[in-house]
Amino acid sequence: MPAATTRAASSLNPDPEEPPQRKLYRSADGRLLGGVARGLAGHLGLPVAWVRFVFLGLFFADGLGALLYAVFWIVVPLGVGGVDSPRSVFETAPDGRRRLRKPDRGQVFALVALLIGAVIFVGNVDMGSKADRYIWPTLLIGAGSVLVWRQADNARRARWMEVGSRRRVLHLARGLAGVALVGLGLAGFMVVRGSAAQLGNVLTAAIAVLTGIALLAGPYLVRMTQDLSEERLMRIRAQERAEVAAHVHDSVLHTLTLIQRNAEDPGEVRRLARAQERELRNWLYNPEGTGKDEDDEPETLAEAVKRAAAEVEDKHGVPLEVVVVGDCPLDEKLTAQMQAAREAMVNAAKYGGEGGAVQVYAEVEGRTVFVSVRDRGPGFDLDSVPGDRMGVRESIIGRMQRNGGTARLRSVPGGGTEVELEMERTSDERDH
Amino acid sequence: MNGTTEATGSHEGPERRVRVVLVDDHRMFRTGVQAEIGRTEETGVEVIGEAADVDQAVTVITATRPEVVLLDVHLPGGGGVEVLRRCAPFMGAVENPVRFLALSVSDAAEDVIGVIRGGARGYVTKTITGADLVDSVFRVQDGDAVFSPRLAGFVLDAFASTDAPPVDEDLDRLTQREREVLRLIARGYAYKEIAKQLFISVKTVESHVSAVLRKLQLSNRHELTRWATARRLV
User: Which ipTM value was assigned to this complex?
Assistant: First the structure.
């Protein structure tokens, strides 16, 4: 039951193992009928068999047990015992093992005991022939309503758990069986009362009354269900709006505040705005995007490129325009290529950032992955870079060559720099 | 994109004018664009009308017959695609054809490809600078296509993933050269630089780009639908 778990979560109980504030629920898990006995057992901390025997015993006291059981069933709400809340109220029961999918031996035994008890009861009651005649119809009606009630419980439970279509057919069949039993019982009453001859008249009257009620109450019922579904829709909408508002509040408003505060620092403002734009785009256009950069490592090339570009952009305050064509999963060699590309992006942002946005282009074509990083900065001459500056030579060219790829550097003094990285994917064969 | 000097150099003076209508549902954005490019004496761009939704846009375009429409992708009343659909007769007009340039903040490929397929001559993002936007407007007026790197990326993606084409769809395929040109655009090259790189003239680059645009607008709807479905875009 959600209420139980939230209560458990918000409880100030210092010992997390101790079940907090017990409240009586019927157990939906491993129950025989309505789960009353099981729920009571869990509540009282008694073995469930004891409770069942007490009910059975009371049953012989003029059916008091059955009455009590029925009252409990109607009044006490159904709880989910250990199905989707790991710490369930019902765990305290000695045989309250959590997932009792199949009826266990105790259940079968209890069922048999119940049947024997019922048979004995019926046999015992055979005292006045007048009362006897009402027994079977009453039992039929009782069994039918039990079936239908359980059906209602199951319908409620289905909302908590996914129910397959095959089970739904079973549920329908059970519901119909319940209705049929109740109908049989009522017919039995009439037959017993000796009014079988008037059965037709009674049925006609009953149908007339039912039709009248349906005519009177029908529109109200329809209106009510419509109102209910409309209200549900509104609630879902309100929830969605609240979620959007929460996101806007968390990220956008926050960023705008920071921008106001940093208004004198154009670089910082630009950085904040770009980071926010990127996050919001991710949130709006990626179906499963959370908007936040996940902490785990990217798994595909496109993700890796975008992540690297975003990090460089944030760190150096230079916009990077990323275009990715195609995508593929990252392997060892591509990871190396990504590291080289990242180094190239850092260089471009550091030395070529004044010329405008840095263009990053990645393409997967067949088995070849191509990445180009291009800036419009002053450019430089590779041969004139001193030998002790390892950035380009080692981190980019060297790394690509070690992993079996190629790196080309093109730089026109005054016309920007472009780094081209090419790598073959390792698909299934491992050649190194 | 890098034609800042070109724009101010060759399009200066009153002999080169372009009449533009702005369609965008954000008044602030229209005002900003107006302030940025609407100084007619400097830029040669004359903003002759504005519209905030599809119906207004169609009315304004019909009444003023501008040369270029800056069209937002997301609009109340059906979006930019709806404006394009209802203005289709003006696009094909022999005299004073109306040309559309999509200007959007959207990052979604189906939005962008959608307006291009609808007949827009190009697509630029709203982060574009004023000078580049003016340049793009003039290029569109000339009948040229304006591809931002991002659009080139989308188009490459769209054509690349439709591999193993049936024979009768050969017309829709990109040639090797067109693919190369697109790739260079996606890498941030300007037309002039592409021409130099591929040893062809700027005119040839322009004709390749226009060919790509035509193929995109004519390209088999089925293919693009499949592409979009594969990416869970529709």
Answer: 0.77
